[in-house]
Fold each of these.
Amino acid sequence: MDPLLQWRSEFPILDHTVYMISHSLGAMPRRTRDRLNEYADTWATRGIRAWEEGWWQMPITVGNLIGTIIGAGEGEVVMHQNVAVCQQIVHSCFNWSSKRNKIVSEAMNFPSNLYAFEQLKQLGARVDLVPSADGISIPLERMLRAIDEETALVSVSHVLFRSSFIQDIAALTRRAHECGALICADLYQSAGTVPVDVRAVGLDFATGGSVKWLCGGPGAGYLYVRRDRWVTLEPRFTGWMAHARPFAFADAPIEFADDAYRFLNGTPNVPAMYAARSGYEIVNEIGVDRIRQKSTRQTRRLIELAREAGLRVNSPERDEDRGGTVILDVAEGYEIVKKLAARDYLMDFRPGAGIRIAPHFYTTDEELDSTIQAIRAQTEVGVHQPAS
Ligand SMILES: Cc1ncc(COP(=O)(O)O)c(C=O)c1O
């Protein structure tokens, strides 16, 4: 008996849905509804006093629940709305018109990160994107060679969203630091399913969000900044919450807080943080190592089943290279995903990759079989005919 299956009753959607889409939107924990009620009750009964009774501290107190998942220390993670915002804060800490003005990343990074790099060219940044040879992996050697004395920032996805390939962030961090560059890892597709220890790796920055493996829902992104870098970093993307004495409402220029508040800006997304907490608590309670153990076994099994069904796999073969998602290159994948959603099998499709399937700690082995059978049945009948 798989002990993690005891968590199934905590996720109402699992009663009637084969939920294979936790790389995109993790299932909602039952207790999230209570948390949202708590938010409404607090606002309704405490009014403005809620700020000093907990809301003001939430970007840090909730960030601490992420910290224990990604290996950060107390007070080292601050909550924001999403990864796009967190990445902008990181970028705004650098002078892109200096000689050290290069960003190194992978061409398969998440599009909004790539869009942001491209925009930085207007400020003088040079962007070096290492391509993939096979559409699945990024050659580590090429990444390491791209990092040089003119690199200001290495900014990578820990796990690639399109193929689930795991990048070696420890090797990239060593190289970045050898060259005097800083490194930021986007942990969105790893935190909660692949173990990460930001302090052991020595990352300077990490960003991520709650929508996927952390089962925290939308509106709660997070930013980690290595403690000994704080005093050297003065984000241009800032606001009154980052001031050493925000309630002095002092004139510019800002005097930055000497703690992680210096990486905040405006009013935080309080309801999203209430909603997100329960997912973090559950992931902490189970432990990412146990989630990873199960995920590795189940993704391996999915690959075997897919091969037996004659379906082409578009994610890494070796367990140690593969995150929590398996991607199947199936003709008419988009239509198949839509048809299966109507039958309560949830997964998604990404152009250039295929059908993305993600078991999580709450997935049964039977669901792996039935998912592959359902996809195979669709490829056999053809998506334009009704499925039997
Ligand atoms: C690796 C990665 N980074 C960033 C994002 C988007 O982040 P956000 O919508 O919080 O900006 C996603 C997925 O949506 C992702 O998979």
Amino acid sequence: MRALTLIADRRLELADAPAPAAPAAGDVQIRIRAVALNHLDLWGYRGMAFAKRKMPVVVGVEAAGEIAAVGPGTSAFEPGAPVVMYGALTCGVCKPCRAGRDNLCESVGGIMGFHVDGFARDLVNLPERLVIPVPRGVVLRDAACAPIAFATVQHMLFDNARLEPGESVLVHAGGSGIGTAAITMAKAIGCTVITTVGDDAKADKARKLGADHVINYRTDRFEGVVRKLTAKKGVDVVFEHVGAETFNGSLLCLKRGGRLVTCGSTSGPSTTLNLMQLFQQQYRIIGSFGASMRNIRESLAKMADGLLPVIDTEVPLTEFERGLARLESRQVFGKIVVDF
Ligand SMILES: [Zn+2]
């Protein structure tokens, strides 16, 4: 079978690899059909100072496929069934795992495609408990965007920021994979969405996607525009993932008692914080990473109801690096999917 392996920083190799053995008891074997790209893939590809990992590692953190075979004692899946997979090897038995808080697992065995072998290969064996059925009507290209992109946004907006219908939300980098998902999910429950983008072509696309107000952050200071749009009140929720460049401006955009939820720091990991502003304005700042199995099921249900991911580009497996380059260049609106 084919496997795409990171052998050194910025060096991928597509090669033949031995196919996995028949699935063991409690495991299923999945034939991968689509891998969706995320910033996590870029972090892995470029190398990351503080991430403990070993190379070579099969890349691909988010994917969809079909059940190829089932091991003894598995019951939930028939061969051919469309599925997505949880992207981290959770233990399944610790207290958070048992409570359905999978992304807080106390003895996680690593993130697939980053710490341990991922999904960019033809066949993968996994415990059945980490596999989630794709509802009828959702194509695998779209389903591939559920485990990380959609589920991360679902977890951020609804579990963490507790976004309610009618509230206002500022979505940073509205053209990104998670930005596009956040715009559509917030609009779907009747929120007012303000978003930032880096060029006018993306601004048009964000408006078409439903954003009520679009700010080109290269020509306008987003915090000033948000204050103006909200009559100086600020928004209820800020959806952050840009990091150092925007974090303090994001706080200035918040209403008193507002919530900032963040899952990323693509522009840099450190910032300073005005503590008086934090407590006087009664902000709530919430860190969010990954999602639960439930969030993935919720994401797929939304897709089945017609809330689909925005697909920027599809590339074949041989052009995985071209997909990464496109993601790195930020010349992207929505998700990049690698087809098998
Ligand atoms: Zn656990």
